[in-house]
Automatic annotation (TrEMBL):
PROSITE patterns: PROKAR_LIPOPROTEIN. It holds the Pfam family Peripla_BP_4. It comes from the Bacteria. InterPro entries: Peripla_BP_I, SBP_2_dom. This is Monosaccharide ABC transporter substrate-binding protein (CUT2 family). The lineage of its organism: Bacteria, Bacillati, Actinomycetota, Actinomycetes, Jiangellales.
Length: 357
């Protein structure tokens, strides 16, 4: 993440200045007005796509970005919003209007409509339901407001200028590939492999499971025991308890989500079971601490910084800038982030990304 140096103090503006229609309240507005005037004579990093390396971080035209996301009822989702706010605060030329988090698609539609009416310069949205928000996002695009779609895709490519996604299938591949590595390195004969999934009806869960199965297939292995939870601590404990009762011996367990992993780990502790290699998913602070303490083998990162990346790209789009690190400098239409493996060897490198469950 970009860390500003020698930048003036930023402050969080009060939210009372903006109230959404239909009760959709703006609960935070981040403004980054400098305490002192910028040095005269600099070009401020403006001027299209011919930016030298690093020039995009220089202050440019002041822009207002609207951000709307789901209710932060999950540690990962809370981290998403926090990272978006922090990224906006790192730029003195960005004012961020943060809508109240909601899982009500109709309320989120109203929030986007308000951003359109306010004529913000760009919108970053993590939809509660990508299909239901496609139409209003398309209206924003038609109004000339670039939309950055985060994590849950719209139904039409016309609904956003760019889309930033975590790699759910890649998470499964990373976890499965590591499971194969553990089997080989520890010479495990006829391994018993278990999987604790998230909500089975969600495409993201299906993608993670498919990636896991495909990776295991490459080393001739399959999942022997599978249960599904609901991304909550309580459901994780219940699902893991059922799994342990059904399987008296397990060699490897992959749990899709580190938030539900708090309950999963509690079930392990309650049963006094630790004979298996425990692999997690998402990259919570709890998981990283367990890895450091030797209570967990690894976790697979699902970056909570997606919305922060969205803020950064929305700023570039609103200022008509490109990506100076690319030969083709225009902001890409689609970005899929990596799903790296976090182990004891590299956990310190990723610890700053760990979110509290």
């Amino acid at each position: 993440m970009f860390t500003p140096t020698n930048r003036p103090h930023r402050r969080l503006l009060a939210s009372a200045a903006a109230v959404f229609a239909a009760g959709a309240l703006v609960v935070g507005c981040t403004s980054n007005e400098p305490e002192e005037e910028a040095n005269a004579g600099g070009d401020g990093g403006e001027g299209g796509n011919a930016e030298p390396a690093g020039g995009n971080n220089e202050p440019g035209e002041e822009v207002t970005i609207g951000f709307s996301g789901p209710e932060a009822d999950h540690g990962w989702l809370a981290a998403v919003t926090d990272s978006a706010v922090a990224e906006a605060e790192s730029f003195e030329d960005v004012t961020l209007q943060v809508a109240e988090g909601t899982n009500d698609a109709n309320l989120q539609i109203s929030q986007i409509e308000t951003f359109i009416n306010q004529e913000v310069d760009a919108i970053v949205v993590l939809p509660s339901d990508g299909a239901q928000l496609t139409e209003v996002a398309t209206r924003a695009m038609d109004a000339g407001i670039p939309v950055v779609n985060v994590d849950r895709e719209f139904s039409s490519p016309d609904a956003s200028r760019t889309t930033i996604l975590g790699d759910n299938y890649g998470m499964g591949v990373t976890a499965g590939t590591y499971a194969c590595q553990l089997i080989e390195e520890n010479d495990i004969q006829d391994p018993v492999i278990a999987e604790i999934a998230g909500i089975d009806s969600l495409p993201l869960t299906q993608d993670r499971t498919q990636g896991f199965n495909d990776a295991l297939d490459k080393c001739g292995q399959t999942v022997d025991n599978r249960v599904a939870a609901e991304f909550t601590v309580e459901s994780g404990e219940a699902a893991a308890s059922n799994l342990l009762q059904a399987a008296p011996q397990i060699d490897i367990i992959w749990n899709h989500d580190d938030d539900q992993g708090v309950g999963v780990k509690q079930a392990f502790d309650n049963a006094g079971r630790d004979e298996f290699f425990f692999i997690g998913g998402a990259g919570s602070a709890n998981a990283m601490r367990w890895i450091k303490n030797g209570e967990m083998e690894a976790t697979v990162l699902y970056p909570p910084t997606q919305a922060a990346d969205g803020i950064r790209l929305a700023r570039l789009l609103a200022q008509d800038k490109g990506m100076s690190d690319l030969v083709q400098e225009d902001v890409p239409r689609r970005i899929v982030l990596d799903a790296p493996l976090v182990t004891a060897e590299n956990v310190d490198q990723y610890m700053h990304l760990g979110f509290e469950s």
